[in-house]
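Quick bug: Tyrosine-specific transport protein output formatted oddly.
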Amino acid sequence: MQLDLEVGNRSNLMLLASAATWKRLVLPRYQPARSFLQTKRLSPRQSVASVRASRSESDIQTGNLQTAPATPAADAEPPSSQPGRLFSNIDPSELTHRPGTVFASATLVAGTTVGAGILALPYSTQEAGFTASSAALTFAAVYNILTGLLIAEVSVNTMCQLGRGSTSIKTMAERTLGKAGANVTSASYIFLHYAMLSAYTARGGEIVGDWTHLPKAAMSIVFVGSLGLLCYKASPKLLDNFNSTLVIAILVCFGALLVSAGGNIEPTALSKANWSALPDTVPTLSLVCVYQNVVPVIASNLEGDIQKVRVAVCTGIAIPWVMFLAWDAAILGNLGNPHLQELMRSSGATDPLDLLTKSDPVVGPLIQFFSFAALTTSLIGFTLGLVDFVGDLLPIPSEKSRLYSYMASLLPPVFFGIAFPGAFFAALDVAGTYGVLLLFGVIPAAMAWSERYGETTLSRERVVGGGAPALLGIGGFAALVIGKELTQTVLNALPH
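Here's what came back:
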């Protein structure tokens, strides 16, 4: 999954205006952006026809699609009662409407959510038990829906105010929270990627090392180096085909795992509920349900239509939520088997997946291949996202920037993965606490607060209800978890 992309679809042309004209027409001072945009709506065919009719051939060829402001109809409904798209995505070669679909956006959310974090789910929830962890997973899904919709709210308002058909989380933070907010966002973004890539490096080295019976440190280098070289050398089409093939393999393997492991579930094991252990699951559950990085992409593809964005986000999260519940039930339900319990006590194993891998000749290979494929697709996505982000920060020519971006993105995680070969769960826990909950918990609430109650922004599109108490609750919860984990880390580091 690729984080914080600027949505580089150059075929997106604003139907109404260029950036300067957009701001001049859409954002008269003291008037919310939504009021003009929704005074007069045309169908895609009518919109394109009106542009063609009002422009000369030379205007169309040069991309001069500016138009004069429309006068609101006398019987126009209030802006708040006319939800819909804010602009149209136009194919510049044919001047035809090219809108995104809710289905495609929902699958993007679902595909982004299902990643290597699922491997840590049984390990994190085994103490709490299936019943309690299911409630916590449901809460995490709802919480992430709310923070994603807050990002959608700020994204749409940012596109309106800046006159763009796309935006990024960094741009939104700079607009609402200032330069300092943008710097914190960038730092948390890089930290999250480094932590995730370090976890994937360590786990990938373990799996390849088990297969080859070679040193795991060396296999970590081989695992990351080969995939990094693939990302660097392969064409986008080849990389997409490779990734798509792995995704299909993941789904097939996931289904086979549920069938194989589901037959050995002990019903009594699923009734376990240790509610006091739930706080320790929050970082991992937050990480497992993360998808918010693609919300700006969805807002652009769906042309700023908040209603469609809301449906895409809720539907896209519901799919992996069901998958996670089924996965957790299949793995934790097997832990009630007396043979596995005895094996866990005698071997000292703490990871349910490792335990099943070593004890079941059918489930074991499926788990290993599923883990390897999930790690591979996640590492590719995080690598591409971080390389793009780092490339924008390097003040060097583009020819050298790409190589240096790959080196800056992959070398630190490789070093960490080699130095701490068993740090998969620890790295994911750190990423969930200080990466996800800050970047996609505190910051979205802070941006929405500045958007709604600050004096520096003009747009006032609101997606999440509840007013100030809701924003305080969303941001405060993430801040509370971060503070708790930070305090515990400091106390553990002090000499006893």
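Actually, after a second look the formatting is fine. The chain has two domains: 19-97, 102-493. Closing.
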